[in-house]
Amino acid sequence: MSKLLSNYCRREQGFTILELLIVLTILMVILSFSVLSLGNFAETMQKRLFITQLQSDLYYAHAYAIHQKEPILVNFSITENKYQATVISNNKLLFQRKLPISIYLQQSNLTKFTITRDGTVSNFGTILFRVHNESIKLTFYIGRGRFSVQE
């Protein structure tokens, strides 16, 4: 009996090629699904980063106008696919952002507006951005410079 057991243990020294192929096939299937979902994740993160940056820039321009008591001109350029803010009195550029390749300005009834010294917005309206098959709507309201971003 012990001789039979020792012969059995000597034969079990590794995996067969069939077992290795099955394990590798399962790993490849799992990895292919994760790579496909990683592309969607990167697009979503790029969109989120853009929205966060846009909101931060607009809050900064608003705070700068109130604190420095100087009007700020915010301009959205559809042809150059960018937006920027400048101080009107001395033409100082506060920021200029080129939009990522996957994000572009679709249409707007508000290409430029002024944030006044007291923080109000001179014009109101909406700006639409396009991200693949989705749109982002930036809306400026009448009043104290309030805006909202809707996906």
UniProtKB/TrEMBL annotation:
Signal peptide: none annotated. This is ComG operon protein. It comes from Lederbergia lenta. SUPFAM superfamilies: Pili subunits. One of its GO terms (biological process) is establishment of competence for transformation. InterPro entries: ComGD (IPR016785), N_methyl_site (IPR012902), Pilin-like (IPR045584). The lineage of its organism: Bacteria, Bacillati, Bacillota, Bacilli, Bacillales. Pfam families: N_methyl. GO terms for cellular component: cell surface. It is found in: Cell surface. Keywords: Competence, Membrane, Transmembrane, Transmembrane helix. The keyword Membrane applies. Its main location: other. The chain crosses the membrane at residues 20-42.
